[in-house]
Amino acid sequence: MKINILFGFIVMALMAMTSCDDSTTDTLGTTLLDQTDNVSIGTAHFKMSSRSVKADAIWARSSTGYLGKVKDPETGGYITGSFMSQFNTLSVFSIESEFPIMIKEDGEVIADSCDITLFYTTFFGDSLATMKLTATELDHPMKETQHYASDFDPRENGYLRSDGLHQPHAYSLVNYADGEQRYSKNYVHNIRIRLDSPYTSKDGTTYNNYGTYILRMIQAHPDYFQKAVSMMEHVIPGFYFEYSGGIGSMAYIVNPTLNVYYRAVQNDSIKNRIIFFSGTQEVLQTTKIANDEENLDQMVNNTTCSYVKTPAGIYTELTIPVDDIVNGHENDTINQAKFSIKRINPSYQNEYLLSAPKYLLAVHADSVASFFENSKVADNKYSFISAFSTTSNGYTFSNISTLISRIANLREAGLSSDSEWEAHHPNWNKVMLIPVSAEFRTSTNSSGVKTQTLIRVTHDLSLSSARLVGGPDALDIDIIYSKFK
Question: pLDDT for 28-37, tens place per residue?
């Protein structure tokens, strides 16, 4: 029953012709048969079933932090986001030569002020909604080598310093405090959290603000700032930005920045200076997501369709009719296996409706964990990416034939040694459709032709949702076989 492998030219010919016009599928076998006397081509259509599966916790490392609380107007569910960020050493050593000329107090350097700026370029919801957060200093840095899930709570797991910096802050995403700056073309929207209250470090020393603590640590221990790891271990372990009130907006935070402002005397004049530490991709950032579980359960229990929902919400599970596809074709090659899954449009319009996920990943159900743990990318053999199409209002997976062949071969090998193999592997014929974020690298050849290469696939932690056509035997999958006569 093993699925055979045909020569590559047959696969390419089939793919080239089927990509021109989907309507030619029914006559394709005859067309190719006329041209290829030694190859027999056949087509078949099968039904697939789909259902919604709650995603539970997912890996939550991301270069974007999600902060706020919103209500999905389509489903009525609430989504809450808080995030943790550590900081990198970027501009510290530029001030070493300035210590002798810095403004001092009682002979020691001081900072005028300090703040954390949470920059965002995208948000969901109402920018005027009044929201609340609390910025809390970590007691010790989170481990770079550990995987943190979307339900990981730094507070519950003992990462927050109980007697450390704890700064509540009320905000709206329209930051009126920045005044006319908001109209500058170079302006980046932000939430600014001031850290100007007296700060007491772990050794009991009290400083007039958090910035002064940092400046004096740089002066006393410049070696701590040689690398981000040592800085986090000894000086700035990171901060947890925790949602604490309000409903109406979710900000997508990029590059949170810790800023220290000071003054120095230069050429008989006083100059304003700043040093900063940024949350970059080189250091750890994690997001904690809280969904309305009762609402998710209601969606999952709806068997008339399926859903894909982020963040950490719902996947769609497909049951592939492997037996039907393989039976009677044990000596054939599956050259193409194509299916589409369409979105069911919301029944009403609302300016705050969630958009459909931009990309879906198709991967075998038993391979989901290893795919993300090992930072894999879709290889178009056993994992596949499809982008949402506004034209078709859905997602199309052009060819998952290699995945189906692999599933069939694994099943055959398993049954050869264990007659109960299917019962021991209940997901053997299941494929998950998972919302993901995809990063591409664009390259240009000598002829000026641009190509895109997929370089990174991660769980999508943004806000998105789509109700899909689905249910028992609700989807079609089209198969093209070939074999030598």
Answer: 343 444 555 6
